[in-house]
Amino acid sequence: MKGKTIVFSTLFCVASSMSFSANASIEAALANICNIVKTDDKSELRKKMKSVRNDFKLKLGDYYEGISCNGNSLIRTALLSEALNTGTLLVKKMPKSKLNKPEVDGIKLSDWIAQKGLDSSPIAQVVSERL
């Protein structure tokens, strides 16, 4: 019984460190994504998303909620930065169901857009078309 406990503990430690290593790698891969969105570099954003999809088998909807750019989501950052190309790409790549869910602060994207007076933004138009 004692041998099984040691084996289990060892496996748990190895699995935990592998998980930590994978998370650190994903964080490194996504490190400058906020700047890419702010500077409206659609080509670089596509490369970044493709790299994460190929290397980690993750789509935008899988890691979107875990990214914060000065307290804002990627789409909110694009709206505030008037980054039409990256904002449009992000909206089109997000599953509709996630676009309509409240974000980390509990406010839906469409409600946040209205609160900030960004209804006239071309990105806001794309959001409303997707909903």
From TrEMBL:
- In Pfam terms, one family for this protein is DUF3718
- What UniProt keywords are attached to this protein's entry? Signal
Query: Span of the secretion signal?
Result: 1-24
Q: Which InterPro entries match?
A: DUF3718 (IPR022193)
Q: What is this protein called?
A: DUF3718 domain-containing protein
* Species assigned in the record: Agaribacter marinus
